[in-house]
Amino acid sequence: MSSKILVVVSSFPKYPDLDRATGLWLREAVHFVKKVEDAGYEVDFVSPKGGYTPIDPHSLASAEAIDWEFYLNPAFMKKLGNTLTPEDVNPADYAAIYYAGGHGTVWDFPENEGLQKISQTIYKNGGIVSSVCHGAVGLLNLKTAEGNYLIADKVVTGFTNEEEKLVELDEYLPYLTETELVKRGAKFQKADKPFAPYAVKDGRLVTGQNPASGGPVADLVLKQLQK
Prior knowledge:
It is a single chain. The protein has 227 residues and is of the alpha/beta class. The chain has 9 helices and 8 strands. The protein has helices at 26-38, 57-61, 65-71, 74-81, 105-108, 113-124, 161-166, 177-183, 214-225, and strands at 4-8, 42-46, 96-99, 128-132, 155-156, 187-188, 199-202, 205-208. The strands form 2 sheets. It has a 6-stranded mixed sheet. Strand 1 (4-8), helix 1 and strand 2 (42-46) form a beta-alpha-beta unit. The longest helix is centred in the N-terminal third of the chain and has 13 residues, at 26-38. It is globular, with a radius of gyration of 16 Å.
């Protein structure tokens, strides 16, 4: 099995109907990457458009020490500034794929056929498909070899409708993550309290609920990879 993991980040910089920036929620990449790199895995970054990854400035307002450490690391930031395009990626090189969140993903993850092919191939090859928070929208249109939705009848989580309303952004989105996951037949689960760390595993599918859940997703992914 490969010792590389592919992290997917958004290329989408601004809400279409709101003067507010969006993009990658930095913590959701950092906490996952820190754990898998410490475990010996190499990480590559891919985005729908390739190149520069916008970072949601609101994610810096709640940044922790580890987030600032990565933010001030030129090598890490250079990777976020020069992400691969889906066409650059050979799925056979990766043991797992991880969709990081941020509201930008709502617009540029679900319909990207290149990302879909990468994820479906990694899963078909015995690898892990994972996500956190809004990154779960990258799973919405993934299909199995039989043509069924990958998340159908699977236990999953993602940013909840309740959490979306609490951050007062639900009315500016084209759809809600939890609602769409359920529409695809997923068995949606969530933490007892909004914004609490929460991650679930269903076979080789691993998902986390919110920005606090990137680390817990990494723990479950690593546990699965070490089997």
